[in-house]
Design a protein that fits this description.
heterodimer, A: 431 residues, alpha+beta, OB fold (Dihydrolipoamide Acetyltransferase, E2P), Chloramphenicol Acetyltransferase, 6-stranded mixed beta sheet, 5-stranded mixed beta sheet, B: FAD/NAD(P)-binding domain, FAD/NAD(P)-binding domain, Enolase-like, domain 1, 5-stranded parallel beta sheet, 13 helices, Dihydrolipoamide acetyltransferase component of pyruvate dehydrogenase complex (chain A), E3-bd_dom_sf (chain A)
Chain lengths: 431, 465
């Protein structure tokens, strides 16, 4: 019998620690290889860690809600054969050796620690997204198969490829597999304040789990980014007529069009002239990555909180395809089954509250992006047109920009061009 | 007056491990001093790979002309036999070496490496003393990379000296020996022995084991053996050289004593790491047998001291040293790197050439891969036939796992097959499957088509066989 020390692997870019959400095992349990072991929460997502070996759990480290360091032992197994304890750091030296930990019944802890003030019982805080990392189907000691480029990237990320499942031919680990492995840390960047009310009070509510992830992301965005907001009024009458017409005459297999696909169309038409706006700003490195492709984050409210799935390469989509893609990614976000591609990598975000859209919003930029566009609600309003009072379908378009890398003048010009596109819908489709 | 240099990185040895490390360090902005007592370039460049390939090239050219003097079947005939001026050959070879040597010098200059010319000796792990022509220099460094290389192994009872020579001297002979005896039928002995045979020397090779080129299997060595037989190289296998007695090599072959008269005796029984004469013992690093022990980050047991290349183990190959140099320097630069290649391909410039990457069929089997292997002969390859290389018995062999068709080994024997090593190594590093080879259009007419066909054959649908 040997001891196998399972150390918390690096869960993604710069993650130094992760929160223990729930244990699926307790001391004394016999676990099979790949059986669920513990749910760990990184900055942005919950990752289900599976057991790397078959054996008996003899130590676990940390109660739910506690943080565990990457590289630290989180569980020790008694296994057949010699285990790995000989060449691993002694688990005794690890910060949280166990005994009292096991007592804590995992599922209720969050509730106990954070009694929600809301009148009706809140649903248990389930992880928004659970990326199950099956330990790959590889014989013990067999080297993971990956190209030199993937191996180098894994080294840079601090990921041990032995933990990564390979989906390529012959079990080859692809870049995508590596992405999927670290996706846990990148799933749904939470983006904007959904309401006009700013959270100002600090209540005695322990912010843990997904809420902590959202809070951290928001705080990062607001702390790092000097926002400025810009709101313009757009006459949506013609576009609304077009939309109604298209919906009335569409084929059965075509999706129903909302305003969003047209908004996306306008963005992809205008953005090439404003590369500083379709960008991600790595402020630590001092580099703005300007993207040729337009990857639009679609802020989506789900039962678990705010998620921003991504419509990739929106420039390649016509309005129908964009509508279908928005529906697809929103569904993915709501079902919590998003892949890394679906949930990260946006270069600009659209946050639309639909009928709750209000008059204006000051959306919080989805860090590290530099701009967020929040269309507000469309209302019939009397406006002066050609010297007459006319009733038009008016909509405010709110937006926030990162003033470090986007000048006010450029942002205003950008929004004016978007407005012009929307007010003259034919131009959305003209080259 | 002793000059003291303080630097971030000190590299001992200017061979392909050391100079590559220095250039990479330059790229990463690491202040670097390199100590080398000989010319820059190391064994590979000065007295190994490059000069021997130059000699082999000339030998093949000479052999072709000698054949033409008899009226070769390709239509070329010479009215007189070619004449070799060995001194000129060696001088030409030196120009090749000089060119590469000055190239390395220029690269190091561009990398802003300070090269200290002289033999270094460490007094402790981070302090190196060098006697230069301008006086003694002491170098103190934060990080040290040891790249001292290797030297030819001598036989205790047949020490080098006089007519007993190592590969270094064999590459610098000013005149051809009439009779050359070679101890050791590894790749160095056979490469050089074959070259000298092409020059017209009488060559006898003595090998203690019962086979030549023990790193390869019989299928791969068979064409080489056939060439040696055809060319008239006398081969004594399972024969032990017991002494060198007045121009005669004394050999014990199964109890029978042979005396082989020779003008020069070339001893190529292997190489050993150069661990003596430069203060390694003062550095407190752990050893692993004859080698310096390192981990996969090329770190020795002494913090801040790294070792690469021949010093740290087999295979003693230029390209392995260079790859380890990258790892060591990038680790010093704070990057997370490991030396963890899927394969280190090796070539053998015998007649014909051998190249091998990954596992031989029997190794694949021993590793539990349940392999399938397939061979495509150059006899059925147009390019090989068109350059008179179709009838050497050469072939390409692919070894793959039956379960998922992942290619775990690739070998070839035949003319110019060393140039296939890139495809071999790359495909194994990429984890290629037989289908990847099958789906890659290989250029016609080239030898590489044989790689394609071997993979097709492993899949059961080769075209040209």
């Amino acid at each position: 019998m040997g001891r196998f020390v399972f150390k918390l692997p690096d869960l993604g870019e710069g993650t130094a620690e992760a929160e223990i959400v729930a244990w699926h095992v307790k001391i004394g349990d016999m676990v099979a290889e790949d059986a669920p072991l513990v749910d760990m929460l990184t900055d942005k997502a919950t990752v289900e860690m599976t057991s790397p070996v078959a054996g008996k759990v003899i130590e676990i480290a940390g109660a739910p809600g506690e943080m565990a360091a990457v590289g630290g032992a989180i569980a020790v197994f008694e296994v057949e054969g010699s285990g790995n304890a000989a060449d691993e750091a002694s688990p005794k030296a690890q910060p949280k050796p166990v005994a009292e930990v096991v007592q804590a019944p995992p599922p209720v802890v969050e509730k106990a620690e954070a009694p929600p003030p809301a009148p009706q019982p809140t649903p248990p805080r389930q992880p928004v997204e659970t990326v199950a990392h099956a330990i790959p189907d590889r014989a013990p000691g067999e080297k993971p198969l990956a190209s030199p480029a993937v191996r180098r990237r894994a080294e840079d990320l601090g990921v041990k490829l032995g933990h990564v499942a390979g989906t390529g031919p012959a079990g080859r680990i692809t870049h995508e597999d590596l992405d999927a492995f670290i996706a846990g840390a990148r799933s749904g960047p939470a983006a904007s304040a959904p309401t006009l009310a700013r959270r100002t009070a600090v209540e005695e509510v322990k912010v843990i789990g997904m809420r902590r992830a959202i809070a951290r992301q928001m705080q990062e965005s607001k702390r790092r980014i000097p926002h400025f907001a810009y709101v313009e009024e757009v006459d949506m009458t013609e576009l609304e007529d077009l939309r109604v017409h298209l919906n009335a005459t569409k084929r059965a297999d075509q999706p129903k069009l909302t305003m969003l696909p047209f908004m996306m169309r306008a963005l992809v038409r205008v953005l090439p002239a404003y590369p500083q706006i379709n960008a991600r700003f790595d402020d630590e490195a001092g580099v703005v990555h300007r993207y040729a492709g337009v990857h639009i984050g679609i802020a989506t409210q789900t039962s678990n909180g705010l998620i921003v799935p991504v419509v990739r390469h929106a420039e390649t989509l016509d309005v129908w395809a964009a509508a279908a893609e928005v529906a697809r990614v929103a569904e993915i976000a709501r079902s919590g089954k998003g892949s890394k591609d679906d949930l990260s990598g946006s270069t600009i975000t659209l946050t639309s509250l639909g009928p709750l859209g209000g008059i204006a919003t000051t959306p919080v930029i989805n860090h590290p992006e530099v701009a967020i566009i929040g269309p507000n609600k469309i209302v019939d309003r009397p406006v002066v047109r050609h010297g007459q009072i006319a009733v038009r379908k008016m909509m405010n378009l709110s937006s926030s920009f990162d003033h470090r890398v986007v000048d006010g003048y450029d942002a205003a010009e950008f929004i004016q061009r978007v407005k012009a596109m929307l007010e003259h819908p034919a131009t959305l489709f003209m080259d | 007056m002793t000059e003291t240099i303080t630097t971030r990185l000190l590299i001992l040895g200017g061979g392909p491990g050391g100079y590559v490390a220095a250039i990479r360090a330059g790229q990463l902005g690491i202040d670097t001093v390199l100590v080398e007592g000989d010319r820059l370039g190391g064994t590979c460049l000065i007295r190994g790979c490059i000069p021997s390939k130059a000699l082999i090239h000339v030998a093949s050219k000479f052999e072709g002309m000698a054949e033409a003097a008899h009226g070769a079947k390709d239509g070329i005939s010479l009215s007189a036999a070619p004449v070799l001026d060995m001194a000129k050959t060696v001088a030409w070879k030196e120009t090749v070496v000089d060119k590469l040597n000055s190239g390395v010098t220029a690269l190091l200059k561009r990398a802003k490496t300070r090269v200290v010319a002289g033999w270094g000796r460490f007094s402790d792990a981070k302090t190196c003393h060098v006697e230069t022509k301008d006086g003694p220099v002491v170098i103190k460094a934060e990080h040290v990379i040891l790249a001292a290389g290797s030297i030819a192994t001598a036989l205790p009872h047949i020490p080098f000296g006089g007519d007993v020579i190592s590969s270094t001297e064999a590459l610098a002979l000013s005149e051809l020996p009439k009779r050359l005896a070679v101890i050791g039928a590894g790749y160095i002995g056979l490469e050089l022995g074959s070259a000298f045979r092409k020059f017209g020397c009488e060559v006898t090779v003595v090998e203690a084991q019962d086979r030549i080129l023990p790193l390869y299997d019989d299928a791969l060595t068979k064409p080489v053996k056939a060439w040696l037989d055809k060319a008239g190289v006398t081969l004594h296998l399972s024969a032990k050289a017991t002494g060198w007695d007045k121009g005669e090599l004394v050999v014990d072959k199964g109890g029978e004593t042979l005396r082989i008269p020779a003008d020069k005796l070339l001893v190529t029984v292997g190489r050993r790491p150069r661990t003596e004469g430069w203060g390694l013992q003062e550095m407190g690093v752990d050893m692993d047998g004859a080698f310096v022990r390192v981990n996969d980050k090329m770190q020795t047991s002494m913090s801040g001291v790294y070792a690469i290349g021949d010093l740290v183990g087999e295979p003693m190959l230029e390209h392995k040293a260079a790859a380890q140099a990258h790892v060591a320097v990038e680790v010093i630069a704070g990057q997370n790197r490991r030396f963890d290649p899927a394969t280190i391909a090796a070539v053998c410039f015998t007649e014909p050439e051998i190249v091998s990457a990954g596992l031989l069929p029997k190794e694949a089997e021993a590793a539990g891969h349940d392999p399938v292997s397939a061979i495509f002969p150059f006899q059925a390859n147009g390019r090989a036939l068109s350059m008179e290389a179709g009838d050497t018995g050469g072939f390409v062999r692919v070894v793959a796992r039956k379960s998922d068709h992942r290619v775990v080994g690739l070998q070839a024997v035949g003319a110019h097959v060393s140039e296939l090593s890139g495809e071999f190594a790359m495909s194994i590093e990429m984890g290629a499957r037989l289908e990847d080879f099958a789906g890659t259009i290989h250029v016609h007419p080239t030898l590489s088509e044989a790689v394609h066909e071997a993979a097709l054959r492993a899949l059961g649908h080769a075209i040209h066989i």
